Amino acid sequence: MNDLGQDLELRLVRYFTVVAAHQHFGRAAADLHVAQPALSRQIQRLEKYLGVQLLDRAPQGTRLTPAGERFLPRAQALLQAARQAELVAREQAETERIAIGYVEDLVITAAVRELRHRHPDAEISTRHLSCRDVGALSDKRVDALIARAPLPLATDDVFTTPLYEEPRMLVVPRSHPLADRASVTADELADEEAAPCAFETGDWASYRILGAGVPPIESYEDKLELVASGRAIAVLPVGDRRSSLRPHLVTVPIEGAPPSQVVLASRKGDPNPMIRNLRQAAKAVLTAPAA
Question: If DSSP codes are grouped into helix, strand and coil, which group holds residue 114?
Fold first, then answer.
């Protein structure tokens, strides 16, 4: 007769398999780090629950009864299944974690909020990156990167998902000859010497500082200061609002320039399911800011 209202305890099953392996209560108790009388009582509890004797006790040792011989392989399978279930659960808990990098002016709050709404138990962190953090994705400081294309990352190593596009604008001091123009063309800027941010490469990197002899400056704020002083001009995506915080700078639309593309990049072959979840959330809620 088993214990009514009680479930089979895996601890008791494990005790039984250890006793069966040693065929001796004393050695099994030492292996389990429990007192021998306590172990004997736990085996009796298991036998009472099952309503059958599993072990024959004798001074010279212990042996399985016929019922014990039939129960042993199933007990071992039960313990293995429980261990596998535990490992799968722990593995899932470990993979429900993501570090999201984002660069310069981009605001990814909506995507992070949506991801947390869809996966409330996941561990989600963000990391703001500057031009100096070009290796954050490749060296695994972040699991995914929301940035502006083009990126100086090998296409064979990353998987890129386009999110949205923005036109370009020229940023100049109010005293600049182009400050009063309704727009400028990309061709008018073609001969300007460029010093792009190290985070991007190509003729139309998203953050371009133009001007002869522009010194190597990493800080974005220092670059805007250079523009405000009249020593350089800048080409930025229209969604970059930071220049509007400076009263001495004005923006002019650029015609004929390729748009700035915001993308989500991740390492190819990364098994983290939260990357796919982030991609879905970002595509659902991230859009170009209103002009």
Answer: helix
Q: Tokens 């700035």 belong to which residue?
A: 260
Residues 136-166 have pLDDT tens digits of 898 889 999 999 888 877 778 899 999 999 9
The residues that bridge with 233 in the sheet, in sequence order, are 210
Tokens 């808990």 map to which residue?
93
Tokens 């010497």 identify what position? 193
- What is the CA 209 to chain-centroid distance, rounded? 32
Write out the two tokens for 173.
Answer: 């001091």
* Calpha distance 118→277 (Å, rounded): 8
Give per-residue pLDDT as tens, 246-285.
788 999 999 988 888 999 999 998 988 999 999 999 999 9
The secondary structure of 22-54 as a DSSP string is: HT-HHHHHHHHTS-HHHHHHHHHHHHHHHTS--
**DSSP β-bridge partners for residue 144:** 100, 266
Residue 184's contacts (CB-CB under 8 Å, 6 or more residues apart) are: 170, 178, 252, 253, 254, 255
Q: How far is CA 64 from CA 20, 41, 46, 69, 240, in A?
A: 7, 17, 14, 6, 76
